[in-house]
Amino acid sequence: MVTESDIEHIAELADIGISRDEVPEFTTQFNAILDYFEVLDTVQGESAPAAGIINVFREDEPRPCLPQEAALANAGSTEDGFIKAPRVM
Amino acid sequence: MAGTLKFSPDDRYNAFITTCREAPFGDGALGGTAIAVKDNISTAGIRTTCASRILESYVPPYDAHVVGLLRREGAAIVGKTNMDEFGMGTTTETSAFGPTRNPVDPERVPGGSSGGSAAAVAAGLVPMALGTDTGGSIRCPAAFCGIVGLKPTYGRVSRYGLIAYANSLEQIGPMARTVEDVSRLMSVIAKYDFHDSTMLDRPYDHRPTADIAGLRVGVPEEYFGEGVDPRVAETVRDAIGVLEGLGASTVPVSIPGMRHALAAYYVICTSEASSNLARFDGVRYGPAVDTRKTWHEAYQDLRQELFGKEVRRRIMLGTFALSAGYAGRYYAKAQVARRNIKEDFERAFREVDIIAGPTMPTVAFRLGEKTDPLSMYLSDILTVPANLAGVPAISVPCGRVDGLPVGFQLMGRQFEDERVVDAAFAYEQEVRR
Which CATH superfamily is domain B1-433 in? Predict the structure, then answer.
């Protein structure tokens, strides 16, 4: 069971804004879905390291990539060739 | 001969988000053929929205690998098709651009999430289209609209330039009115690309043949059980009978992991979505964020405004499933369940060459019929196993119930896409005679 305050906390962690009147609706829906997920408690078997799967590595050599102008073309706010983001502090 | 294709369709079903009135084309295997592309596949210079307001004005600076291959073979890319927002849905109703209607019955959904591609093909606006399939998003709309759709083996088609939401599950695949056209489009798009590190160099270059004598067809009881409309089950059993008539034999098989499949799928896909969609913050693409607000405040406000409810619900579910104290119960268990299902398929494929069943448990829903998210999720039960196991799966039309199309699903071993195409082709040729 998750509570309305759990839902508000999850939204906060996910950086997803939700409005006050959405909280009860999301809570009910979450609980129905999590009830359904309980079937996973009956899964048999342990997680084992993946067998037969190998990493594919390559030399770290430069390849052609997007020019700066193209990379910035869709940013809503740029300054001196950089993308402008909100302040962190 | 190169040229320009004029394209101004009567889009009464809202299949397209963007149309290209003058689409250039060239020479090649698809020279001059009009092709529609799902709007989560990047097209240089043509806006690509994922049916979301957050990407409403996003114009990709590069082509997805598959789009480059289409252009190289002379195809005319005539438009970008409607879909559930970011591919999250089974009906195409979560699109920020309004729902697509089913050309077979406009009061019904076309299925999703590649509903626009399926409707464009079914309505005859284009002969072929590209869709993407994370948990059934090619096969479901193919079944609901009465066309053919193939989800290739995981790793057979490059995902470079695909705006995926769950990378370990999703594949781009072909949709068309005939198996032959699906195979033709597959031959163009399944070519190696070093940009996608999950891809293997196993190109598809195949002409379908209808000779299936001796083919062993597995029939899993789980695909005909509770929740499957008995009339749909009966129609599909008849289709299996047609394969038997062509010299195939049937063998009962079991996929016991099916009881965990849907929960495992939704835990994995929402978990991947929660990390994947973090990049949609309005900074690198999308509207400018308000840089006077703090980081979290700016993102929360923007994502609340520009993401639809289902996208926010899935990001939150995934965040929860991965959070400290719950990851072991949900995400880790889902991965074990996924491996069990893969092993179930491997075991079955030691006895049989393909596995057959319905694509969807029912025919197309009415618009607005599925209001509760869980009941919507439950309708994916027969399609998600192929994504979890990474195996190829095709849906081919096999008759009607209440006047609405039923899809016949054929699944094969990994990298045996050719075999599922041949089985579908044999069925299609036989019933069309």
Answer: Amidase signature (AS) domain (3.90.1300.10)
